[in-house]
């Protein structure tokens, strides 16, 4: 056993949350841990009863009732967002937070909203993450262990992650996307406030690299971007609407800019940085509507088959999961 590190290849919003939920249920993972920057991320999964789940702080692995969910010490914690998710998803007794996580305070959110550079130029989610990280780096942040409301959840998550991964499966859910990485994007300042690679995710949760079983890189078949910065092959908004493939941000509700195809060179760069051993190819129904809701490998159409071959060539890793629609079960598992 060991850890599966789930990261996004491009600009995020590729369905990492759904992939994490699928693996938690399929493999009955005892532990899922959130890596990544913090609450600027938004994961959404539609359960089979039609309930739409939206999460910003906790990994979606909780959808499996036997999975404990944790937040690694490198991830920023907003106590209000955390409390909301614990209550909404009824997770009391199943949540662990590292006492060393830096806190996002209301003042951080206000400061980002008032910052024209972040709000207008960068197109930040203005959820306080960058401002809180700056305070952490300057060593004046409050940490989770300083907040009495978080006391019931506190533990050494790094120690727990390594302990569990020695005998069982740990799912590490990254956030944002590789190309939004602060120090690996060529598009600074159109980045988030930390790196979003597999190595960064391991660091966020304190995972010993020897315990990594797989790096599962999620590739969105038609990439999207929210906020500013270049998006190769960007489709005009009218075409996105005409094709019925419009998407809106989980955190901000902003329409996502959408590309008509993958940029093969950028995908290769993401593969070089992450070293994936497995690929999940998501939003296949946006490439070919005939794939919508397919759950069987026999339903893979010629355009999607061609895309799988291309992605496997460009990343050097096999496609093991195909996402075919918004529902949790709209998935073809090729494992
Ligand atoms: P910030 O990290 O909220 O300051 O946002 C900086 C940039 O990263 C903006 O372009 C955001 O739209 C983008 N961003 C931050 N988090 C996410 C995410 O989870 N998915 C996609 N884009 C994100």
From TrEMBL:
<dbReference type="GO" id="GO:0005737">
    <property type="term" value="C:cytoplasm"/>
</dbReference>
<dbReference type="InterPro" id="IPR042111">
    <property type="entry name" value="Adenylosuccinate_synth_dom3"/>
</dbReference>
<feature type="binding site">
    <location>
        <position position="139"/>
    </location>
    <ligand>
        <name>IMP</name>
    </ligand>
</feature>
<dbReference type="GO" id="GO:0000287">
    <property type="term" value="F:magnesium ion binding"/>
</dbReference>
<dbReference type="Pfam" id="PF00709">
    <property type="entry name" value="Adenylsucc_synt"/>
</dbReference>
<keyword id="KW-0963">Cytoplasm</keyword>
<comment type="pathway">
    <text>Purine metabolism; AMP biosynthesis via de novo pathway; AMP from IMP: step 1/2.</text>
</comment>
<dbReference type="InterPro" id="IPR042109">
    <property type="entry name" value="Adenylosuccinate_synth_dom1"/>
</dbReference>
<feature type="binding site">
    <location>
        <begin position="283"/>
        <end position="285"/>
    </location>
    <ligand>
        <name>GTP</name>
    </ligand>
</feature>
<dbReference type="GO" id="GO:0004019">
    <property type="term" value="F:adenylosuccinate synthase activity"/>
</dbReference>
<feature type="binding site" description="in other chain">
    <location>
        <position position="192"/>
    </location>
    <ligand>
        <name>IMP</name>
    </ligand>
</feature>
<dbReference type="InterPro" id="IPR027417">
    <property type="entry name" value="P-loop_NTPase"/>
</dbReference>
<feature type="binding site">
    <location>
        <begin position="250"/>
        <end position="256"/>
    </location>
    <ligand>
        <name>substrate</name>
    </ligand>
</feature>
<comment type="function">
    <text>Plays an important role in the de novo pathway of purine nucleotide biosynthesis. Catalyzes the first committed step in the biosynthesis of AMP from IMP.</text>
</comment>
<dbReference type="GO" id="GO:0046040">
    <property type="term" value="P:IMP metabolic process"/>
</dbReference>
<feature type="active site" description="Proton acceptor">
    <location>
        <position position="13"/>
    </location>
</feature>
<comment type="similarity">
    <text>Belongs to the adenylosuccinate synthetase family.</text>
</comment>
<feature type="binding site" description="in other chain">
    <location>
        <position position="254"/>
    </location>
    <ligand>
        <name>IMP</name>
    </ligand>
</feature>
<keyword id="KW-0658">Purine biosynthesis</keyword>
<dbReference type="GO" id="GO:0044208">
    <property type="term" value="P:'de novo' AMP biosynthetic process"/>
</dbReference>
<keyword id="KW-0342">GTP-binding</keyword>
<keyword id="KW-0460">Magnesium</keyword>
<keyword id="KW-0436">Ligase</keyword>
<keyword id="KW-0547">Nucleotide-binding</keyword>
<protein>
    <recommendedName>
        <fullName>Adenylosuccinate synthetase</fullName>
        <ecNumber>6.3.4.4</ecNumber>
    </recommendedName>
</protein>
<feature type="binding site">
    <location>
        <position position="256"/>
    </location>
    <ligand>
        <name>GTP</name>
    </ligand>
</feature>
<feature type="binding site" description="in other chain">
    <location>
        <position position="125"/>
    </location>
    <ligand>
        <name>IMP</name>
    </ligand>
</feature>
<feature type="binding site">
    <location>
        <position position="42"/>
    </location>
    <ligand>
        <name>Mg(2+)</name>
    </ligand>
</feature>
<comment type="subunit">
    <text>Homodimer.</text>
</comment>
<feature type="binding site" description="in other chain">
    <location>
        <position position="176"/>
    </location>
    <ligand>
        <name>IMP</name>
    </ligand>
</feature>
<dbReference type="InterPro" id="IPR001114">
    <property type="entry name" value="Adenylosuccinate_synthetase"/>
</dbReference>
<dbReference type="GO" id="GO:0005525">
    <property type="term" value="F:GTP binding"/>
</dbReference>
<feature type="binding site">
    <location>
        <begin position="323"/>
        <end position="325"/>
    </location>
    <ligand>
        <name>GTP</name>
    </ligand>
</feature>
<feature type="binding site">
    <location>
        <position position="13"/>
    </location>
    <ligand>
        <name>Mg(2+)</name>
    </ligand>
</feature>
<keyword id="KW-0479">Metal-binding</keyword>
């Amino acid at each position: 056993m060991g850890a599966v590190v789930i990261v996004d290849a491009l600009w995020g919003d590729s369905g990492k949350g759904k992939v994490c939920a699928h693996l938690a249920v399929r493999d009955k993972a005892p532990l899922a841990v959130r890596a990544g920057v913090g609450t600027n991320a938004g994961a959404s999964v539609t359960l089979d009863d039609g309930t739409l789940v939206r999460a910003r702080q906790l990994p979606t692995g909780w959808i499996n009732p036997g999975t404990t969910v944790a937040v690694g010490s490198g991830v920023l914690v907003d106590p209000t967002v955390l409390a909301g998710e614990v209550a909404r998803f009824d997770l009391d007794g199943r949540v662990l937070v590292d006492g060393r996580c830096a806190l996002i305070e209301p003042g951080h959110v206000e400061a980002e909203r008032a910052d024209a550079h972040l709000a207008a130029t960068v197109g930040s989610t203005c959820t306080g993450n960058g401002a809180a990280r700056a305070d952490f780096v300057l060593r004046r942040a409050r940490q989770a262990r300083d907040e009495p409301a978080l006391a019931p959840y506190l533990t050494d998550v790094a120690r727990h992650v390594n302990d569990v991964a020695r005998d069982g499966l740990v799912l590490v859910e990254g956030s944002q996307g590789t190309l939004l990485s602060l120090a690996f994007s060529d598009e600074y300042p159109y980045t988030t406030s930390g790196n979003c690679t597999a190595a960064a995710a391991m660091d966020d949760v304190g995972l010993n690299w020897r315990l990594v079983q797989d790096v599962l890189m999620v590739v969105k078949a038609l990439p999207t971007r929210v906020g500013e910065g270049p998006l190769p092959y960007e489709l005009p908004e009218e075409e996105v609407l005409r094709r019925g493939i419009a998407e809106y941000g989980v955190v901000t509700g902003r329409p996502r800019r959408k590309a008509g195809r993958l940029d093969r060179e950028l995908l290769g760069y993401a593969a070089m940085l992450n070293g994936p051993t497995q690929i999940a190819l998501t939003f296949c129904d946006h490439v070919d509507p005939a794939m919508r809701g397919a759950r069987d490998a026999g339903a893979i159409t010629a355009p999607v088959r061609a895309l799988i071959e291309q992605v496997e060539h460009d990343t050097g890793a096999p496609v093991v999961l195909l996402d075919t629609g918004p529902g949790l079960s709209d998935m073809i598992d090729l494992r």
